[in-house]
Amino acid sequence: MDEGNVKSGEVMTAKLIEDFIESMREKNRGKSSLDNYNRILTSIYQWLPKDKILDETTGMKRRQWLLEEKGFCHRTVNAQMSVLNTFLRYLGHRDWQVDEFVRVSNDVQPELTRAEYLRLLSAAKHMGKEKTYLLIKTMGGAGVRVQELSQVTVEAACQGMVKLDSHNGLRLRIMVIPKALQGELLEYAHKESIISGSLFLSRDGKPLSRTMVHHYVNSVSQEARVDLEKANPRCLWKMYQSTRDGIQANINVLIQQAYENMMDQEQLTIGWDM
Asked: Between vectors from CA 80 to CA 79 and to CA 82, what angle results, nearest 5°?
């Protein structure tokens, strides 16, 4: 490579990860540590865009994504940043390392229950705060994250689905808007004379900032008898994920039971000892 050219990034490959793991093995790292390195670096590799380029912004972007989109606890985020820093040092890019880690509190991050979520909705309705009600329901009921709210448009509500683009195109997903929420969003758009575009806007017509969304949700916490530290978008997102995971676990149990029943019936007709 010509020394006059500036190298703007480093391509992350599976071979690089393997070589790094081998170098750590030679330094007598334990199996659990090696497995952890491999798991985290593979996750980062899959998260990167198609070009798989690492650069000086990768660490900060990854940290922000883990905190804001995935809702991971601070210790988990710091652990991932530590592994990434070690990998970047191995590649000779100490200048790309994340210097500022997230402060870790000794307190466990509070979790919003489904009952508390429903109380937030009820409080917003009782207080006549329709926008707050819809924000809470869109985030906690449909699983829309703060940075995706501007993409919930009149057009999306009409179609009953929306293609959500987050992290500058790195993450795309199709979200079906539940029918109950779809009808409420369209009714809200009609009452507010919003013909097209985003449904959640500030008074000056701009997308709601994260601070404003926090304020809307916080504003009904006292009426809902929900701790202020739970009335926020991150807790709504985690509650949504937990609800989905619980439903999926129940479905998996039913599938397994159905399969076992099918096998039992087949055993009665064609079992070896039958």
From this structure: 65
* Per-residue pLDDT at 246: 86
pLDDT, position 168: 54
In tens, the pLDDT along 85-110 reads 999 999 999 889 887 666 655 445 67
Rg of the chain over all Cα atoms, to the nearest angstrom? 24
Q: CB under 8 Å to 96, separation ≥6 — which residues?
A: 54, 55, 56, 58, 59, 88
Low-confidence ranges of the chain (pLDDT < 70): 1-7, 100-109, 166-171, 274
Which tokens hold the place of 34?
């090696």
Of 202, 25, 245, nearest in space to 114 by CA: 245
- For 26, 32, 149, 152, 179, the CA distances from 158, given in Å and listed in that order, are 59, 50, 16, 11, 10
Q: Which among 72, 113, 108 has a CA at the least distance from the CA of 239?
A: 113
pTM: 0.59
Distance CA 64, CA 233 (A): 15
268: DSSP letter: H
10 DSSP β-pair partners: 54
CA-to-CA dists, residue 228 to 112, 123, 232, angstroms: 11, 14, 8
CA–CA separation, 113 and 116 (whole Å): 5
Main-chain phi, psi angles of 162, to 5 degrees: -150, 140
